[in-house]
Amino acid sequence: MVKDKCKINLLCQDKIIFHIVFDNKIMVKNFDNKNIVIIFDNKIFVMKNIIGVPARKENFYPREKEINKIISKIDDGNNLQIAAPRRVGKTSILFSLLDNKTDEHVYIYVDTESIDNNQDFFKKILKEIVKIESVRIAKLFKVGNKFLNKIKGISFMGAEINFNESSDIDYKEELENLLSGFEIKDGKRLVLLIDEFPQTIQNIIEKDISGPKEAINFLQSNRDLRLNPEINSKVTFIYTGSIGLNHTVSSIDGTAFINDINSVEVGPLTKIDALELLDKLLANKKRFISEESANYLMDKIEWLIPFHIQLAVQEIIDQSNPDVAITIQVIDKSFSEILKMWWNRFNN
Question: Regarding the domain delimited by 57-265, which CATH topology (the fold level of the hierarchy) does it fall under?
Fold first, then answer.
């Protein structure tokens, strides 16, 4: 067993989250990339990690410590990256900021996962801002805002917004003018929640067969926006993604282009929070669990992220009956079924 574990650690470059032994099969999930590595009968298999729908609103377990830290950093004028392995809930935290708006900042969410070039990246952000804040922007156009008047790709006809698509428009310049001219009262900020930013960088790297020049230019352009004094006094950029920003950027020696970004680490739940989440999930299905069995489940899960707890509870509910206490035997059977499910997905 020790020998097998050492071999797995080498394969995963010491980035193991957990390993499980089940019927002589050893399964390893590596969340730092998009793969699940499985060792079976001394053979190595790799499969894609399946991404679930991010939790929102009542389905989101409050991460108050992390969210309060993020809001505090926004208030201090910092640009941020939310750093964590896959499945920890980074996108759900973005959605929580977007859905609640308790601090009265203006939040706009943009997913850039499929984008592979500068122009489309800045154009998408520009369009999302204009679509969501059209009323505010139209008023600024009407009063003759000097920055907005420089924008070529947007025009207003009454309440209607027109995007003038043209190959000669520089969308980074357009976005720069829009952000420079954007105004919110009472010192509140425009907060751009940019999801899958590292994947966009990776897409650009992979597209440019001549080297990382385009990716470096992309990073430099984004840094220019963040550091523009007309922008950084009222706009915050928050980045996250399913692959690590630091790792992606360091692969092309571009770390200097993100050294102005603060990092907020998101880890697993505390055991107290994990038990609270467990109780809520079970109560919704009229199930209950003893303290002994609950602690056993926590030890079994080990890495206490909401996704793992929800996955375990889903199977436990299938294996149990309402108003009957969940036993250790039910938990063990549920874990066996979860592993069988993943194994069948792999083989199919």
Answer: Rossmann fold (3.40.50)
CA 158 to CA 271: how far, in whole Å?
55
Provide the token pair at 41.
Answer: 């009968």
Class of domain 271-347: mainly alpha
For range 296-306, the mean pLDDT: 91
- Going by pLDDT thresholds of 50, 70 and 90, the confidence category of residue 186 is confident
Residue with more model confidence, 237 or 306: 237
Q: Up-side HSE of residue 278: CA atoms within 13 Å toward CB?
A: 27
Of 1, 10, 63, nearest to 304 by C-alpha is 63
Structure tokens at 264: 């907020």
**Under 8 Å between Cβ of 180 and 147:** yes
Q: Which of 84, 93, 102 is nearest to 17 (CA)?
A: 84
- The reported pLDDT for the residue numbered 145 is 77
Give the bridge partners for 39, in sequence order.
26, 44
Q: For the chain, give percent helix, strand, coil, nearest 5.
A: 50, 15, 30
pTM passes above 0.85: no
Q: Tokens standing for 144?
A: 């003759």
Neighbours of 57 (CB within 10 A): 9
Residue ranges per structural domain of the chain: 2-48, 57-265, 271-347
The pair of three-digit structure tokens given for residue 50, joined into one six-digit string:
């399946």
pLDDT in tens, 173-182: 999 999 999 9
Long-range contact set of residues 290-296: C-beta below 8 Å, sequence gap at least 24: 290/325, 290/326, 292/328, 293/325, 293/326, 293/327, 293/328, 293/331, 296/328, 296/331
CA 283 from centre of chain: 28
